[in-house]
Amino acid sequence: xxxxxxxxxxxxxxxxxxxxxxxxxxxxxxxxxxxxxxxxxxxxxxxxxxxxxxxxxxxxxxxxxxxxxxxxxxxxxxxxxxxxxxxxxxxxxxxxxxxxxxxxxxxxxxxxxxxxxxxxxxxxxxxxxxxxxxxxxxxxxxxxxxxxxxxxxxxxxxxxxxxxxxxxxxxxxxxxxxxxxxxxxxxxxxxxxxxxxxxxxxxxxxxxxxxxxxxxxxxxxxxxxxxxxxxxxxxxxxxxxxxxxxxxxxxxxxxxxxxxxxxxxxxxxxxxxxxxxxxxxxxxxxxxxxxxxxxxxxxxxxxxxxxxxxxxxxxxxxxxxxxxxxxxxxxxxxxxxxxxxxxxxxxxxxxxxxxxxxxxxxxxxxxxxxxxxxxxxxxxxxxxxxxxxxxxxxxxxxxxxxxxxxxxxxxxxxxxxxxxxxxxxxxxxxxxxxxxxxxxxxxxxxxxxxxxxxxxxxxxxxxxxxxxxxxxxxxxxxxxxxxxxxxxxxxxxxxxxxxxxxxxxxxxxxxxxxxxxxxxxxxxxxxxxxxxxxxxxxxxxxxxxxxxxxxxxxxxxxxxxxxxxxxx
Length: 568
Prior knowledge:
Helix Hairpins, 568 residues, mainly alpha, 11 helices
């Protein structure tokens, strides 16, 4: 049976009709052979006729009273034998009469053999019957009583006159019946031969006509089936071999199974076309979203670099302020050490106080600049948080698109499985689409995680910047207090001698404030370091986001290449 799998359908159908034709012709030949054996004057028919003729040659026919006539002679010959007379008269003679009447009644009721042949019927049923009735009546009423009386003369007279005349009359009509029956049988046989010959010729003609008509119709059906299957195969091959033209449909006017297959294939291609169209649209959305994501990540990277440069400037200003505070602390220590010799060092203290006022003014300016940089850093971090939230929304959209793409790929796989062998090519494409959707979802998850890290780092940086801003504000306040104190000391330089105790006290406050300024600047420096670290983390996160956006863009391009294989 494996050899049939490699033969085309029209060849299989052609072989079937050939085998059927051979079987049909063989059956007809076998039937003709049977008719030849069973026909009139055929071998079997002749055997039956010869068997009947053999029986007729051996047994006297019941429709012919010759045996009864011979029994009458036996009665005459055995007239003195009572037992033989009784056997012949009561058994044989009665039996022969009953057999004759039975056959006569049979032929009288027959409506087939004597149909349209009144001469034969009258000769058999009426003309030959009357002498027989007279014959048996004479036997019953005259001949048997003479036998019983053992009257040989009367018996011989009745036998040679009345019985003989009726027997001769009966035989005359019987001979005529035999002649007419033989003629009738001969005519029937000849008519049967002609009819059988005509029937055979007609049967052969009908058989040949049926065979050739069936072959013609079968060839037309094979041609239609082969044309429909070839069209269906070409359309499927055109799609599966890489053409990918999903706009073509199979036009079938048949309402048979091939028409149903064509309609189902058209529905399948229409569904597949819609799926590919949806995937193509989603691929475009993914591509545009990846471009927006890459642009946003570039902008965030630029903002991160700007924030890093601003924090560097704030760190430089903080270091300069720390140096100034250190100088103020040294000057304050000199003032405290020279408190007992203030009178001798008034000019020196005046110079020192001027320097302190100048340094405090410079410190205030630097602190103001640091506060401005911190405020700018806070604005940048706020923009960074807003951009990160926008990117998060984009990744959500991309994730939803990836999920829809996976659902579409799953539907395409199911529709391809329903198509069987015809949908194997679509199963591969659906698998590739599903794999690209999975990779898109994975890349989107990674990007979403990086965005969450950026948002957390951004929030930490914002909190740190707020602390830095607060500390810088405290340093500015302290610096203004130092400047005010220095101005007061400079204004009261002429009264230093009188207010030495007060100056010592103010000098102690100055030292305390300078110490607090030093501590505040240390906190500011640590906070700026934290901001710088957060900026660095943000920059690294942006690099990961941009990498993910590039991967997403490549995936969308790959998806477009797969979609471009189809013509929709």
